[in-house]
C-alpha cells in the first residue's frame, strides 16, 4: 500500500517503512507526526481525493533535523563589475513512515 501526501508545498509518494526528508516541521526527535493531507491512497484499489481523501492520514516518527548540501547562488551582470555569491542550506526533518490509515 502506498500514499501520496502533501507537506511543505511538495508532494511525496510514501509506503510503510520509508524514510523521507520533508521541509522542517519543528518537532522534537522521536515525536509522532500525522500528515492529514493525503491526495491518493493506492493498493488493491486506488482512492483519489478531491483534493484530499476523506478520513485518510499517514502517521510518522521524526528521526531528527538537518541541513541539505550547500547550493551556490551566483548573480552576475556583464560589463558593470557586478557579481554576488551567496550560499544556501535548506533545513529538513527526516521522518519514518509508520502507518497509512485509509
Keywords:
elongated; 4-stranded antiparallel sheet; 10 strands; single chain; 102 residues; 63% strand; mainly beta
Strands, helices and their partners?
Blueprint: E1 2-7, E2 10-15, E3 19-23, E4 32-35, E5 38-42, E6 47-48, E7 57-67, E8 71-77, E9 82-88, E10 91-101
Antiparallel strand pairs: 1-2, 1-5, 3-10, 4-7, 5-6, 7-10, 8-9
Describe the structure.
The chain is mostly beta strands and 102 residues long. 0% of the residues lie in helices and 63% in strands. It is built from no helices and 10 strands. The chain has strands at 2-7, 10-15, 19-23, 32-35, 38-42, 47-48, 57-67, 71-77, 82-88, 91-101. A hairpin with a 2-residue loop joins strand 1 (2-7) and strand 2. The radius of gyration is 18 Å and the shape is elongated. The relative contact order is 0.31. The mean pLDDT is 95.
